[in-house]
Amino acid sequence: MGNKQQLGWSILVFVIGIASFWRNLNIFTTLPAGGDAFEIVWGIMWYNHALTEFVNPFFYPYIFHPEGWPLGIFAHTPLLFLLAQPFYLIGGDVFAYNAIAILSFIVAYIGSIKYFRLFTKTHFTTLLVSAAYTFIAMRSIRSGGHLHILWATGLSPFFALYLHRWYLREEESIWHTDLLWAGVSWGLMISFSLYTIFLAPLMFLLLERKLFDWKKLIQIPIVGAIALLIGSSAVLPYYFSSRSIEVENPIVNALVFWAQSVNHIFIPSIFHPIPFIQDLVAPFVEGPTTENHMQNIGFITLIIVVVALWLKFTQKSKRYYGHLYLLIISLIFTVGPILKISDQPVVINSSILESINSGLWSMGHRLKPDVFFTSHIQDDFKNAIPLPAYLFTIFIPFWESARVTARFAYVTLFGAIGIAAAGLDKLPLPFKILLSVLWIIELVPASNTPLDLNFDNMHPAYQWISEQPIEAGKGIIEVDDNIMHSALPLYLSWQTKVPSASATGSFKLEHTRFLFDQVGEWVDTPPEHLAHVLTAYDVQFVMVHNVSDTSQEIWEHLIDNPSYFAEIGCFPPESYPVCIVEINNQLNQTNIFPTSGLTQSETSGDWVAEGVSSFNFIATSERDYQVEFSASPLCVGDQFQSMIWHLQDEVLFEYSGTDCETITADFVISQESIDLGWNTFQVDVEFVEGIDLDPAIQLNDLEVRPYASPNQ
Description:
Elements: H1 3-19, E1 30-31, H2 37-53, E2 59-60, E3 69-70, H3 78-116, H4 123-135, H5 137-140, H6 147-154, H7 156-168, H8 177-192, H9 196-199, H10 214-230, H11 232-244, H12 252-257, H13 275-281, H14 299-315, H15 321-334, E4 340-341, E5 344-345, H16 351-367, H17 379-382, H18 388-395, H19 409-423, H20 429-443, E6 451-452, H21 460-466, E7 475-479, H22 487-496, H23 510-519, H24 527-536, E8 539-545, H25 549-559, E9 565-571, E10 578-583, E11 593-596, E12 598-602, E13 605-608, E14 611-619, E15 625-633, E16 640-647, E17 650-658, E18 663-669, E19 677-687, E20 697-706
Parallel strand pairs: 7-8
Antiparallel strand pairs: 1-6, 2-3, 4-5, 8-10, 9-10, 11-14, 12-13, 13-20, 14-19, 15-18, 15-20, 16-17, 16-19
Helix pairs in contact: 1-4, 2-3, 2-22, 3-4, 3-6, 3-7, 4-19, 6-8, 7-8, 8-10, 8-11, 14-19, 14-20, 15-19, 16-18
């Protein structure tokens, strides 16, 4: 077969592969899906704004209100959005999204052909295994929002290609250009997804026995240094952003949840379009489908791997070992910290195992108390079977941040495809044809669900919000069954330019987790508490996405308490109404919540009574806070009163003077004294000796707010 014929067949297979699931034919107006795709469309527009208006692209002020969002911790990295900019200039945000999504499949397909043809004898087998890797459902489904995963895994074949060339080299020199290109390809993978800091090193197993050659061991750090240098566009923003704001660390239970069950890996896709195959897969997955259920390599894939391995041992074929090592070791990591079958931990009642697990948990609690969050091991872990990822969770920094260990299945897939590539051509032709046909049927991905996106066609509720004179520093919060934590608030925040206290991305920031905890289930939280906490977060409007029984209950709970929430109304369409209330502006707007010794019986201010009074305020971050107030002491002749302010046993402010003087105060509390969440002031007021009256000082215009230095 000539080169032109090979090229023609390669293009035809690619077109058939992408047509098997791609349904958004108008790439200028239609996305492959909603959901996480909104994050990327938003990011494309935000980076364009940042680059053209010369603002910081690594900070977004309109989400995670009132703190804003350091974008370095965002799963989608800068390189992805920069890559989209030329396409954005050509055809807009939706076109840019579709262009870089399709381009990622092209890159993966070209890289797969270049690498897997090293192990095949026919162009048919090369195209089959390359299409299998490129379009398998666990990758193609990522076109609906996880383009960083598509790009990172699409570059894996190039990384493997340069590792293979490195494997073949026998020259004496320590440095050669394959090291450079291996480092560059790995660095690009990191630049698209920080997950590949952990995933890609397993691919060094492709060096097989040469991995332990002293020269290779010297060269690996060189490749790693190049990769980190190239990947610094993602690593450095993550490092500095994670230091600037507190991020909620996933606990070890979450790491177990997001791992794959060992019996779910080699089943067909749970989204397979053929009903018969759906019925076969259904018994394996119970309850809601989550990302850890989506890493399915397939049963026919397993059969091909087993047959290919059998042929290896009977025909003494070479270059299986690297892919086999990849498959086995990455498979172990895919299952996560403990062994799971059908989403349930496998347990063995053994005192020895319990002692081992208790020791591991104790070590984890000492090193990572946020991850191993209790001092004593939880019951679910006492008799579980620990796996290597458990040790990595304990000892490797940031390992828990890559919480979805099920994504190691992408490396498992690469190992399986490599074995298939080397084994299919060795099968007798009838068996090769039969397995190939069955494999193609199994690999057909589910079609995407297109979404027409018109940036100018906002929901009427958001159109109304965008036209309101929002108070300075104030924003909104969006609610469905609870505070919305999805890509939609992020996308809509850019449409309206109104800050939202709702969340997006893989993790909540710590101040948002506090907000989630305080509002609880909404209908079980007293309206006064709801109003005061939302006020502390500078929320002016609550937008309830009234799409479920729970959200309807939340809406009714709010409008049934007009003293705290003023009803604005619900906006159509009926299929997706969004209802709005405004927090009553007559409430205490100063982030002060009296707890004892203070009254609010007079509109002019709070009276601080004799003895130690206290009141709380909420800090939405651990930073310096500024306190301002004026005070009017109870006037009794020329007698002296004193007032002392404490915060956690630290004296912040002292006053002593005649009781008719007006007191003014303006002082800053250092962040070392502030706790994220609730903080309690204690105020001690008394007369000098000899006065037979109860002292009292009226506080006027008391305000506690984050401190803005003169340089900010």
